[in-house]
Amino acid sequence: MEYRRLGESGVKVSVIALGAMNFGLNPDKSWIGPGLNEEDSVAITRYAFDQGVNFIDTADLYGHGVSEEYVGKAIEPFRDEIVLATKLNAQMGPGPNDGGLSAFHMVRACEASLRRLRTDRIDLYQLHTQRFDVPHEEVLEALDRLVRDGKVIYVGCSNYAAWMIAEARGICARRDLAQFVSVQPRYNLIARDIERDVLAVSERYGLGVLPWSPLAAGLLSGKYHRGEPPTEGRWSVYPYNERFSEITDQQWNTVEAVVSIAEARGVEAAQVACAWLLSRRAVSSVLGGANSLEQMKTYIGAAEVKLTGEETAQLDEVSRSEFNPPWPPQLVV
């Protein structure tokens, strides 16, 4: 397993992380899937650790707290060897202050996550999404307070716009608050929109990029085919099934290029898709949201796949569009 620094922080994380979104039954999020029970969640987590994965990402949203409970139980034997990340913002109760990013809720949410995770600190605490109903200063000051209280080590953001990252940087610099060390965006060969701005901002400020949905909900796994209705996986259930017919020819060309490279190498298409992400210089770790032991094995195997310059260029070109400009951006004089 390869390890990289999390942005410009001093901590090193495995290039493949275990994303625990699928842990815990959650009827309110049925489109994610039925969810894994405790036994399977613990088994996947401990297998990943045995294979060198030292970075686990979850959130209070996942399974309405159940994912954190399962992760907490799974890592108890080796807690101090794990870089543990979770996120907040979800509505966790019926009250008006049971969700969001007010300082009032953030302190309570952190304490609740600590209890569920059976730990005394969160190694990376991330804002799950940006909010506009709370002053940004209040949010960032609350994060800093959690760091100063020893409940959190590093802070990051997820699904943040580039301008929000830059604004946070300025606020934290002026007020001497804990700075973001990472950003967690959707990023894959089908969705390269963050290359317009988020990647550039991340590099400018030394943020580690942690892509979620590296396989575009399984589209890049190679199990779906042009002209064939999906009968299994994420794309066979709502709302993905309603959008399957909207997959463009270019996106199918991208899928087929990934499959072609995988077949030539004797590896899995999913591993090629993850290897392409790991070729991006700002990426610290790819979040593998496994819902089975076999899927976790596939993700871990991706750490060993190193694409050639020619293969990377081929994937860059086939997946490029007017919304996905060349990366890195070139200065036009």
Overall mean pLDDT score?
91
Which descriptor suits the 3D outline?
globular
Q: Give start-end ranges of low-pLDDT stretches.
A: 327-333
Instruction: Give the fraction of residues assigned to helices.
Output: 25-40%
Main sheet?
A: 8 strands, parallel
Q: Please give the CATH architecture.
A: Alpha-Beta Barrel
Which strands sit side by side, in order, in the main sheet?
A: 9-8-7-6-5-4-3-10
The CATH topology turns out to be TIM Barrel
Reading the helices and strands in chain order gives EEEHEHEHEHEHEHEHHHEHH
CATH H level, superfamily name: NADP-dependent oxidoreductase domain
Structural category: alpha/beta
Distance between the termini: 41 Å
* Count of helix runs: 11
The proportion of residues in beta strands is 5-15%
Number of domains: 1
The total strand number stands at 10
Give the C-alpha Rg: 19 Å
- Determine and state the CATH class: Alpha Beta
What are its keywords?
two-stranded antiparallel sheet, TIM Barrel, eight-stranded parallel β-sheet, 333 residues, alpha/beta, globular, single chain, disordered C terminus
Short description:
The chain has 11 helices and 10 strands.
Structural commentary:
There is one protein chain. An 8-stranded parallel sheet has the order 9-8-7-6-5-4-3-10. Strands 1-2 form a two-stranded antiparallel sheet. The longest helix has 17 residues. 37% of the residues lie in helices and 13% in strands. The chain has one domain: Alpha-Beta Barrel (TIM Barrel), CATH 3.20.20.100. It has 333 residues and is an alpha/beta fold. A hairpin with a 6-residue loop joins β1 and β2. α9 packs across α10. The termini are far apart. The chain contains 11 helices and 10 strands. The relative contact order is 0.13.
